[in-house]
Every structure is written in C-alpha cells, then in structure tokens.
Design a protein that fits this description.
InterPro entries: Epimerase_deHydtase, Lipid_A_modif_metabolic_enz, NAD(P)-bd_dom_sf. This is Nucleoside-diphosphate-sugar epimerase. It holds the Pfam family Epimerase. It comes from Yoonia rosea. This protein has a single domain, classed as Rossmann fold (3-Layer(aba) Sandwich). It is built from 12 helices and 12 strands. By secondary structure, it is an alpha/beta fold.
Length: about 325
C-alpha cells in the first residue's frame, strides 16, 4: 500500500509515519518543516515527497492508495493569527487536495479534524450527528473542510473524517501548546502547574498515540459500518474538566496542586463527546484507559529532554512561536 501523509513531520504526523512503516506501507511524506527543529528523538527519513501540499498536482497523487491529511494550522492561537489564511489553508486548500486526489484515482482520504467543531456545548455528550457550532476560525475552517470532503465521498472515493480530542503524550516532535503537555513539561522540571482559566470547562483528552493509531486504522482498514464517515476520537475514560485533569497531573507528578489566577476567566470552549462510534466502525481498535499512566509517560518523556528548561524558555515546542519565527526568516 502506498500512503501519502501531509504534515508528516509534526507532532501527530511523525507517529503516524512510524506506525505506517511498521505495518509495511510505503510512505511518502509532505511537510513544510516549520517545526522540524522541535524533533528531540530519532532522525528524519529520506522520504520527503514535497514541502507544500498546496503544490501537489493530480499527477503527483497518481498511484497512491490513501492520503492522510494532517497539514495546516494546528490550533486556535494559530487560527486567530490570520483567520483569512486559516480558512484558505485548513478549508479551501484541504478541499482542493481531496479533489485532486479523487481525480488521481486515490481510493481513500483521511482528514484530521477536531472536536473543537462542537464549540461552546451544553452539558450533554455530543455525538457525530449533533450540530457543530465552532467558535474559533480554526474550528470553523475544519468544519468547512469536513463538509467539502463529504460532498466528494462516494463508492470509489472513501472519505474518513476523524475529530480528535485534545491530545497529549510523547512524540518525537513535542508540543507544549497543548494543555496537558504544557503542564507535564513544567512538572518534569518540578514546577507548580498554573492554569490561565478557572478550569471549569470540559474537555475530552486523548493520548496522541490513540489518535495516530486511529488515523492509521482509518487509512488501511475498511469501516464495518456505512453511515456518516465522521468519527470522534475520544477515550471514554479521559473526559473531565480542565481543573480535574490538571489536579490529577499534579498528583501523578508529585508537585503542588495547580494554581489558578485570582481573576480566573471561564473558557467558552467546553464540550463532552462520545467516541464509541469509531469502535463500531473499526472493532479491532481499542482506546487507552489509564489516564494517570499516560500522564506519567508524558512527564517522563519531557524529563528525558536534557535541554528542556531552555527549550521552554525559548518556546521551542510552541507552534505559534515557531511559525512566527519561520515567517520572519522567510521575509528577512
């Protein structure tokens, strides 16, 4: 099987590529290498097929069986930096890539989406049939891409849309602009955990390995159901308030209880989701269940980075900071 992965050298992509290679797939990597400097373990492969997925033509995509599309602005802060560019990159260009893929005869297209499309939800657990109401450009652009891809979905071109929960956990290319990763990195240095909100908002969390495994499953397996090809990826045992998640992380790390600002603001991004539909479609897949063990592994991975204190000071693992530096270097 020939698989093309965009965003192949990022936080999730580096794990997806490793799993595909371990399964014997021939992998072609496309990545802008905005975050290549963040890699802390291993070496890059020699499989870089392109640096900008927007430049790929129908001919370039011919011969691939599957595309896993991870590239694009990766969180709300990057989305707010330029909403117009966010819609162009995450929605319009993602749809254009999928159309090229369909014309090239690619059989399956897997989109990395986000549970952020649910936005400011009520207390109910959201499933894939519920209305999405994103409140950020990043979430809205992802929802737009989902809708464009669904319009292309048919018997000859299978679309799989995976809405990821809030990821955390070890990767060869770490990120500390994800809540639990930031807390675990601070804990690895023995620092107290400090939040920027009141911690009352709900979040579905997931180990990044779960998301990578789910993306690979959707890329190489045929779903056992033929309903709407949108799936939340969210371990049932890892949904909690931000306050609870931070408190548990502090306990695992054996650092003081988390600190909250005296004038704590509420985070409007609050939602709970059901991740069970994916299990019905891909019955060989299983979620991680031990949140504390996953937190401990994340702390250990950051503690193993000899330059961690300096890396945090320089925002080495913060995507928005890295992107700004890359843009400045391009215009210098």
């Amino acid at each position: 099987m020939r698989v093309l992965v965009t965003g192949a050298r990022g936080y999730v992509g580096s794990k997806v590529v490793a799993q595909l290679q371990g399964a014997g797939a021939a992998v072609a990597e496309v990545d802008s290498e905005w975050f290549a400097h963040a890699r802390v373990t291993g070496n890059w492969s020699q499989n870089l097929y392109g640096t900008d997925f927007r430049m790929l033509t129908v001919d370039d995509l011919s011969g691939f069986d599957t595309i896993i599309h991870l590239a694009g602005y990766s969180n709300d802060p990057m989305g707010w930096l330029s909403p117009q560019e966010t819609y162009a990159l995450n929605e319009t260009e993602a749809a254009a890539l999928a159309l090229h893929a369909k014309k090239a005869g690619v059989k399956r297209f897997v989109l990395s989406s986000t549970c952020s499309v649910y936005g400011e939800a009520d207390d109910s657990e959201k499933n894939e049939m519920d209305d999405a109401a994103p409140i950020t450009p990043y979430g809205a652009a992802k929802l737009g891409a989902e809708r464009a891809l669904l319009a292309l979905h048919d018997d000859s071109f299978n679309v799989a849309i995976l809405r990821g929960a809030t990821a955390f956990g070890p990767s060869p290319v770490p990120r500390t602009d994800l809540l639990l990763n930031e807390l675990c990195a601070e804990a690895a240095l023995g620092r107290p955990l400090q939040l920027q909100s009141d911690g009352q908002s709900w979040r579905p969390f997931m180990p990044v390995d779960d998301f990578a495994r789910a993306l690979v499953a959707a890329a190489v397996q045929t779903p056992q159901t033929d309903d709407l090809p949108i799936w939340n990826i969210a371990p049932p045992d890892m949904q909690m308030t931000v306050r609870e998640a931070a408190t548990r992380a502090a306990r695992v790390a054996k650092v003081p209880s988390p600190l909250f600002p005296s004038q704590s603001a509420a985070d409007r991004r609050s939602y709970r989701v059901s991740g069970t539909k994916f299990l019905n479609a891909f019955p060989n897949f299983a979620y991680s269940t031990d949140f504390d063990a996953a937190i401990a592994a994340t702390i250990q991975s950051y503690a193993a980075i000899a330059t961690l204190q300096n890396d945090l000071s320089n925002d080495r693992f913060v995507r928005l900071a890295s992107f700004k530096r890359a843009q400045m270097a391009k215009t210098a």
